[in-house]
Amino acid sequence: MYFKKATFPLLLILIAWFSYFITVHQGGSGPVGYLEIEVAPASSKILLDGHVVKAGRLTVSTGKHSLVVSKKGFSTQSQGVVSETGQTVYAGIVLQPSSTQTADWYSSHPADQKIVEGIGSHQSDYQSGVALRMIPFLKLLPTEYGDGHGGLISISQGVPASKLSTLPAVYVIAQTPGERQGVVTYIKSRGYDVASMDLVFSNMQSPLQPVGGD
User: Fold this and answer.
1) Are 85 and 62 spatial neighbours (Cβ–Cβ below 8 Å)?
2) Which residue spans within the chain are E strands per DSSP?
3) CATH of domain 16-134
4) 169 and which of 123, 161, 176, 207 could share a cystine (Cβ 3.0–4.6 Å)?
């Protein structure tokens, strides 16, 4: 009887762990996405939805997930991620020293410093990939074409037009209202959705709004 009582809680723990393993690492039977985790320092503790995981590529169920990265002597960081079917979400987290003992950590641990540099590069590449997926028109930029009067109309991508956005804005240099409207027609003629992008014109007046509009 004692053996049965002692092993029952252990059995429940094993079942819970196995269910989590199937859900996170194998994706279960539902749609799955992928989560690429990279952290510095490399010895940091990583919790995914409350369970310890290792850095690297994981197969996860689609939907919202929570990451918490911690290490003694560093500020703990939390990050929410949303996994989409068949897509890879990159999460690169660099912990900041929070004590005098770890203040010079990265300068004295070159391997972790290299990870920090890699995270910056990988984050930039990931954001560029997301931007192209959300705004395919960016693949054509920068581009220029004649305005018919000896001048050029220039279209390029640049920093987000809003602090609330992480996607590049599409910047347009076109002098007249007709030329600006022509840019909108140009974009639409190539099968792209103008409403999916932030257009910033040289005179700050979008042809998508009437003059004097809000």
Assistant:
1) yes
2) 32-40, 45-48, 51-53, 56-61, 63-70, 77-83, 88-94, 143-146, 152-158, 169-173, 199-201
3) 2.60.40.1120
4) 161
Q: How many DSSP H helices and E strands does the chain contain? A: 4, 11
Query: CB count, 10 Å around CB of 191?
Result: 8
Given its phi and psi angles, is residue 50 left (phi above 0), alpha (psi -120 to 50 degrees) or beta? left
* Domain range list for the chain: 16-134, 137-201
Segment 29-84, tens digit of pLDDT:
589 999 999 999 999 999 999 999 999 999 999 999 999 999 999 999 999 999 99
Label residue 212 by pLDDT band (50, 70, 90). very low
Q: Which pair of structure tokens corresponds to residue 12?
A: 């429940």
Token representation of residue 80: 């929410």
The strand ranges marked E within 49-87 are 51-53, 56-61, 63-70, 77-83
Q: Specify the residue for token string 């932030």.
A: 198
Closest by Cα among 72, 88, 70, 91 to 80 = 91
Predicted confidence (pLDDT) per residue in 65-79, tens digit: 999 999 999 999 999
pTM reported for the whole predicted model: 0.68
